[in-house]
Design goal:
By secondary structure, this protein is an all-alpha fold. The protein has helices at about 1-30, 35-60, 80-105, 110-115, 120-130, 140, 150-160, 165-190, 195-205, 220-235, 240-250, 260-270, 280-285, 290-305, 310-320, 325-340, 345-370, 375-390, 395-400, 405-415, 420-440.
Length: about 450
Amino acid sequence: MRRRRNIQIIVSALGLLTLGFLYILWLQRHDDPLYARLAALLSVGLFAALGLRFVPRWIAFWSKENSAPAPAEEPPTMGLRLFLALLLADGCLLLAAWLVRRLLGHEESLLASLRFWRVADGVHYLDIARDWYLSEGSVDRLVQLVFLPGYPLLVRLLIPLTRSDLAAGLFVSALCFAGAGSALYRLLRLDLPHVAALRGVLLLCLLPGSFFFAAPMSESLFLLLCVLCLYLARTGRWFFACLCGAMAAFTRSLGLTLLAPLVMELVHAAVNGALPRRRLLPRALSLLLVPAGFGVYCYVNYLVAGDPFQFLIYQSEHWSQHLGLFFNTAAYQTQLAASSFGRDAPLFWGLWLPNLLTAFGALAVMILAAGRLRASYTAWFIAYFVIAVGATWLLSAPRYLMATPMLPAALALLTEKKGSRFAAFFVLTPAWALYFLAFLARWQVW
């Protein structure tokens, strides 16, 4: 026990020193206003608090421990019932969007209103599904190479059946979202009773930005693949888990972060005797499937543009997008929020404020849950957050952060008591509704 405590202190100290060094180095290179520096410091502080909560769980996770299985009782055919319910919810969302748009003055039929969903990144995904990537043409079409092919390939397969790229996209998203919710229930049931797991799925639906799961975009497929990857890994079907991880990395570059929970689970299984030594090497080698999935995307870049990393050039030149420090994002977005407040409502209320609240809120939720959440989930969130929020021109923090199972898993743990459930629904429900209204009004919601 004393040895474990010493390891916790050393790892925590190294992490804090690294964060402090990066923040001081950042301060020396940026002459930002005081309020922006304080926003960055708040981001660093919350991240440090999460790390301090995570380290003891990490050390314990890689030690021998016994965990009690979740209660087995649940209603019959729960997976199918949940799948159908989520399909219905998806249809109701499309109907609600039509009704709200009519109230906003858009006189259009229900069928015509579906064209609204050809928005944001959905335009690019549908173009790719219909025409594939272009090696010559307008710049706006060439830069679509930055959007990974997993989702548009799936849509492309259905276009001959639906005779419409939009219909195929909406259909694929609906099916993937229903499948993801059902798979998330199964994943949560490995640790939680039926009611808590079901609550986790409901809270996923209430996360601001969850309406993007219905859009012709990659979020629903990515969530499905991530949940399947974790579930299969935890139930011992390792090769198929890594295969799902490969497909996730072929769908979004953030799929590469699945290596974090997979490595955590691999070591955990080995330490606790659940994995014979002769199977350790094959499982470790299977991890290479995840980067291989992204490697296939790089090969597509090579075939289309002659450079396997052409997407990085397009991201930099067209979107000013690089990988930066997550707390720098808090600083520049706070400045942009301050400059748009009172002068540009769509930018402030639709873009910068939701981005900031989501990033800070996600850290706060994970801090509160980290003491009980499975260590591999927290490790994945840390890796995912650093990369997703570290983008130098981040427009879609709510969409990125809700497309993984960590937040609903954390919220399911935090809402066991009636008061905490009321607080969660009291905050999330109006936040979801307001963000949805901003999206329908096209208030810079990406």
